[in-house]
Amino acid sequence: MMKTKYSFWLILMFSLIITACGSRKYTVKSDTKASKAADAMANLKSKQLYRFITDWTGVKYRFGGLDKSGVDCSGFAFLLEKEIYGVTLPRVSRDQASVIKHKSVDNLKEGDLVFFSFGGNNVDHVGVYLNNGFFVHASTNRGVIVDDLNLPAYQRVLVKSGSVN
């Protein structure tokens, strides 16, 4: 009888512990870089742009590349602007920078271009602005990715921004 009573309480306690663990809710931290990038994508006005970026995300970087086997930054911007906005840009980022109308970063709109100089004074990298400080580009290390323009690594080398029109 005592053994049965002891077993009953043991089973009851074990059940409560299992149930308590099973009801725990896990939440994703909403201020992570990935969640902010996902928010930027979700807030795009152009669904065509959203599809274009998701189709290209993860495509590896290849200097001179213009297809999904590999693309460089200016090639990606060239293809995006042509397909989404019907704008034909020059092929090289330095030349792309020469045809834009300058805008301050605070006034950028979806589809505007951001230019960087990682190697000195000349423009050598380009991305396409999305919203809320995020842009999409073909990173030499990570391929096509949505990134945070406010990161110090980008702020230090940002040299020009603006629109094609």
Protein model, in words:
It is built from six helices and eight strands; from the N terminus they run αααββααβββββαβ. It has helices at 2-22, 33-42, 47-56, 73-85, 93-98, 152-155; strands at 66-67, 70-71, 101-102, 113-116, 125-131, 134-139, 143-148, 158-163. The strands form two sheets. The protein has a six-stranded antiparallel sheet with strand order 3-8-4-5-6-7. A hairpin with a 3-residue loop joins strand 6 and strand 7.
SSE blueprint and pairings:
Elements: H1 2-22, H2 33-42, H3 47-56, E1 66-67, E2 70-71, H4 73-85, H5 93-98, E3 101-102, E4 113-116, E5 125-131, E6 134-139, E7 143-148, H6 152-155, E8 158-163
Antiparallel strand pairs: 1-2, 3-8, 4-5, 4-8, 5-6, 6-7
Question: What name does CATH use for the topology?
Answer: endopeptidase fold (from Nostoc punctiforme)
Estimate what percentage of residues fall within beta strands.
Answer: 15-25%
Question: Major β-sheet, in short?
Answer: 6 strands, antiparallel
Arithmetic mean of pLDDT: 87
The share of residues in helices is 25-40%
- The beta-strand count equals 8
Q: What is the CATH class designation? A: Alpha Beta
Given as residue ranges, the uncertain stretches (5+ residues, pLDDT < 50) are 18-28
- What topology, given as strand order, has the largest sheet? 3-8-4-5-6-7
Write a brief caption for the model.
By secondary structure, the chain is an alpha+beta fold. It contains six helices and eight strands; from the N terminus they run αααββααβββββαβ.
